[in-house]
Amino acid sequence: MALPLKNFRLGITEAIDIWLDAVASANAADKAAIARDVLQEWANRKAHEHKVAWRRMRANGLQAELPGFEMEDDGASRKRRR
Q: Is 62 left (phi over 0), alpha (psi -120 to 50) or beta?
């Protein structure tokens, strides 16, 4: 079952459009699917970067000052943290 999609409008340069079109043609896909894949890869990298930074800060005794970005599952139990 596919996840529901949100509409998102974005202006892109001609060069980006050419790249999306070329990649879509080479992979028998549409440009929107290619763009979704690119954005998903970017989001995954950002999430990983955040986790790495969070763990390094925690290991050095620092508290990340990013409200709403607490790690849900960083290996520590909730009981131990309280």
A: beta
